[in-house]
Amino acid sequence: MVASRRPRMTPPHALPAVAHCPPPVPTDALVRAARDGHPRAFQELVRRFRPRIRALALQLTANASDADDVTQDAFLRAWENLGSFEGRSAFFTWIYRIAVNRALQVRQRAARRPCVDPDDPRVALAVAVDAHTSPHHAIELRERYGQLLWAFDQLSPLLRTTVALTTLQGLTYPEAAAVLNVPEGTIAWRMHEARAKLRAALDRFGAVPAEAPEAPRRRARSAEPRERDPNIASLAFALAAVFQG
Hints:
about 240 residues; Rna Polymerase Sigma Factor, Chain: A; Arc Repressor Mutant, subunit A
C-alpha cells in the first residue's frame, strides 16, 4: 500500500509580502479635519473632487480657461467659507452648488456663440473618447457633437445646468435637486423641457441625430457621486438621453 503524499506547504515566512492599502478616508472625516485647520485634509478634498468640478465648469462655460478659473475660484470660496458649512448636505452637493453659481456668472458675461465652434474643447474631449482612433469617425463625430453642443448652449441657464448635472455628470434627480436646491419634480420637468428644446433646436439646425448607445441606468441615491472619469464627458450619453429619453 502506497502512502498518500501530503501537498508541500510553503512556510509563512516564504510567502510574498502583500501591500495593504489603507481604505480611503471618508469625505465627512476630511471635511471635519479641514474645518479643524488641517490644510492637507482640504488638499485631499480638492484632489478628490477637482476633476468633476472642472468638467462641470467646462460643460457650462464652454471655455477651458474659464473652466480653470471657475474651478480654482470654487475651491477657494469653499476653503474661505468652510467654517459656515454645517454638513446638512453632502460636501459634494455644496461644492457643486458653488461651482454652478460661479460658472453661470462667468457664462453670463460671455457672448453667446452665433454658430458651432469647431475648436470647442468639449467637442475635442468627447471625440477623443468616442472616435476610437478612427480619423473618419472623428470627423463625423466632431460635426454631430458640435451640433448638439450648439443646441445645448441655446438652453436657458437653468435647463443647461440641469442637463449638465444629470446627463453629463451622471447625478441622479435627487442629487441634482439637492445641488440646485429645488424639488426633485422640478428636475424631472426641466429635463422634459430640455429634451423638447434640444430636439427643436437641432431640427432648426437641420441636424440628424446619430445613433446613440444605450443610456446609462439610473442608480439609487448615494452619499458620493458616481465613480467615473468626469473628464470623459462623452456626448454620446447626452445624445442617448435626448433622443431615447
